[in-house]
Amino acid sequence: MALTVTDDWSMKNTNLPKRPTEAELAILNILWQRGPCTVRDVHDEMSTRGRIGYTTILKLLQIMHEKGIVLRDESERAHVYRPKRTQEQTRGQLVRDLVNRAFDGSASQLMMSLLGTGKVASPAELASIRQMLDEVDDGGAQP
Amino acid sequence: MALTVTDDWSMKNTNLPKRPTEAELAILNILWQRGPCTVRDVHDEMSTRGRIGYTTILKLLQIMHEKGIVLRDESERAHVYRPKRTQEQTRGQLVRDLVNRAFDGSASQLMMSLLGTGKVASPAELASIRQMLDEVDDGGAQP
DNA sequence: GCCATTCTACTAAACTCGTCGTAGTATTGG
DNA sequence: CCAATACTACGACGAGTTTAGTAGAATGGC
Description:
elongated; about 55% helix; homodimer; 6 helices; DNA-binding; mainly alpha
């Protein structure tokens, strides 16, 4: 794809993780929240949000397994799936990706956009952000 | 799609904007940066980043026009394209989308992830963020 | 006037994503 | 033991995305 925005890599990118698709992320969210799940577990959870076929979830999880997004325990008849990467890792990846694709690599511009939506106006959120900022600033000067 | 995370719609969602695809966003970035462009303008800019066909860009822009993502001035032979929505609007949309899809609707959690990447450690960026935070906090109490 | 260039439109191939049906195999309840 | 049930694997399909080739119209240089 000639349109990608030049992630600075150094050849042989065979093992770098691709970002999950929409449906994959929805499944990962359930896996992170509920821990290792069978197809049925995931499907039950999904079903509370809307109509979705069992085999659809099955197929998605099989594909995610092929891609290496999830790990599979096949020791029991009902295979048990769990995420390969942590939620934090994946979130970081998604954020980095968005910063590169839409914010010219500038994290602070993303912040600005975030604050500009008015969706973050809650005082609790602001306080939380300030605290994080302080922590980063304090311990940020790495030895 | 039963897997979408329940955008709260109220019927007749015909006019809500969908988020641009990867290639569309790349083109929009050029349009925002350079102002209204012909297909050739966009293609020339794209060509500096990699090999890409002229008609590929043409087709993309035609599709984007059909979708209403860009506006087209056909008064000259070489049609001139410009974004329909501002960069800020689109950025806000993308950020909101990511917050909902991957951060459980919590903007502050996105902040945390952003600060955790280490990519934002630049003092200048931190200062910039602090300032933004102050401004939001100050004028945040809407009349 | 004519030929090369430039532009748009049309067509379509290759690929991904999301969806699900069907088939086959293993487990289990009566 | 056998029928119902539950599970995985496989295949397929429709929609959307990205890519590009080709046709045909408009323009311009000489």
